[in-house]
Amino acid sequence: MSVQLWTFIIVGISFVLYIAIAILSRASSTKEFYVAGGGVPPILNGMATAADWMSAASFISMAGLISFMGYDGSVYLMGWTGGYVLLALLLAPYLRKFGKFTIPGFIGDRYYSQTARIVAVVCALFVSFTYIAGQMRGVGIVFSRFLEVPINIGVIIGMAIVFIYAVLGGMKGITYTQVAQYCVLIFAYMVPAIFISFQMTGNPIPQMGFGEILDKLDGLNQELGFAAYTDGTKSMVDVFCITAALMVGTAGLPHVIVRFFTVPKVKDARSSAGWALLFIAILYTTAPAIAAFVRTNLIQTVSNKPYSEMPQWFSKWEEAKLITFTDKNQDGNIQYVKDPNANELEVDRDIMVLANPEIAGLPGWVIGLVAAGGLAAALSTAAGLLLVISSAISHDLLKSALVPNISEKWELWAARIAAGVAVVLAGLLGIYPPGFVAEVVAFAFGLAAASFFPAILLGIFDKRTNMQGAVTGMAVGILFTAGYIIAYKGVFIKPIFENTPEHWLWGISPEGIGTIGMVINLVVTFVVSRLTAPPPEKIQHLIEDIRVPRGAGGAQAH
């Protein structure tokens, strides 16, 4: 069978499975829609959390980044892995005990202010829409190649699928769908990795095969004028800032935090966090190996080879406009070198994992499986983010601030309508993305770091932090970070500054500027809080209570 037919079959089966699960576990109350009824077993919640966490950036783009950046790509591994540990150990238990399943809910009650709640809602929408843009872009890339449709049509198909199971099922449907999606994506990630590791090194364990191929890859890179794969070229300050932004930005990702409320008890929340870390580690320890394998195979397949002899996969990715060959010296061979004036090949780094089994010559069913895995990763996170957007509007904005007497029935309808509108906006961001998948997701983490992290951290550990400080800090942090990203990346506008290290502020890239935004937020919040009246006494007692390691309040939908 052809690759396209295999893809239709495997992706079709997976989509039928997701929609069937959503229908069978559809939400009938706001508690089921927001927190899956609070009764998900820890191991299943761990799988759902891992699927939620490992977005298109993890599955599709991270190994692609590492394959091009080499050592410098380790910032994504360190930042995202460390960020999950930071969230699970430092913040999640306290947020669970506080009893609010959304960040705007926590900030609105902790800072005793509807203004703080509304600012948090705006920040949550900003972060979530930025993040979801990367997911929809990933969906479009998968569909454009394997179903041979334009990227824009691929995004629209993805919108329709995620609309069905996110809007119908709510968190209950999403949770059990994500369990299935984790199984699909991890199987799809590991099967080609094991095949290729054995093919290239004789060792079926990718993590061990990775070590055996590094010397060869260093040599291949240097022959083409690139830096050695194992050498870093980024400045230390930028590496630190990107890693820190990815880590602390995790604390501001509402779609992950809500996962700690879908289990019955605090003990179960800790247990599911441990399971999730194990499930995440399987993919994250394999990503560097996949990056090295695909980089090696790509160089050996295309470098200084006749364009007329390129395999079929090359022309297919060309048709999707994700590989471009320009014969600058008119010799008919592909010159793939570091010098931009002589380099004749442009490869979208987001295709590296998807093209990996094709480049290695693996069977058609493996290629179709990888396509299904990429879609599972993108759609699982997109669904979680859509739920965050809908709950921020229906629960935190309407129910808690604007229309407190709204009935549960109308609140549920408002949540579904908000999710539907969000799907359309998310699709537009996927069609007109501000960068490649992992880069866009890094922007979302930076925005979360600059807006939510200080408010959550100080809200838990500093009784003196008040409403004035938190609101001012969040506003200043997100405006500074968003302004910097837009100035250098030109999101919906032309860039103001050239996006090169010599033009960056203190040598810090747009992906890492969230760390500076976070520091500004912390300083502003701390100073303003000390210059204004302290929080009410009952709020200070509340903060003392949630830090006591006992009790386990359940998630409250109202």
Features:
disordered C terminus; mainly alpha; Sodium/glucose cotransporter; two-stranded antiparallel sheet; 558 residues; single chain; 2 domains
What is the end-to-end distance?
A: 53 Å
Identify the quaternary structure here: single chain
Summed up, the helix count is: 21
> Would you give the CATH topology of the largest domain?
Sodium/glucose cotransporter
N-to-C SSE series?
A: HHHHHHHHHHHHHHEEHHHHHHH
Count of individual beta strands: 2
Provide the number of structural domains: 2
- The helix content, as a percent range, equals over 70%
For the CA atoms, what is the radius of gyration? 23 Å
Largest sheet descriptor: 2 strands, antiparallel
The poorly predicted ranges are 551-558
Which whole number gives the mean pLDDT?
82
* Outline type: globular
CATH homologous superfamily grouping of the largest domain: Sodium/glucose cotransporter
Instruction: Please state how the strands of the largest beta sheet are arranged side by side.
Output: 1-2
Strand percentage, roughly? under 5%
The CATH top-level class label of the largest domain: Mainly Alpha
The SS-based structural class is: mainly alpha
The assigned CATH architecture of the largest domain is Up-down Bundle
What does this molecule look like?
This protein is mostly helical. It folds into two domains: 459 residues, Sodium/glucose cotransporter, CATH 1.20.1730; 46 residues, no CATH class. It is built from 21 helices and two strands. Strands 1-2 form a two-stranded antiparallel ribbon. Helix 19 runs antiparallel to helix 20. The longest helix is centred in the N-terminal third of the chain and has 51 residues. The radius of gyration is 23 Å and the shape is globular.
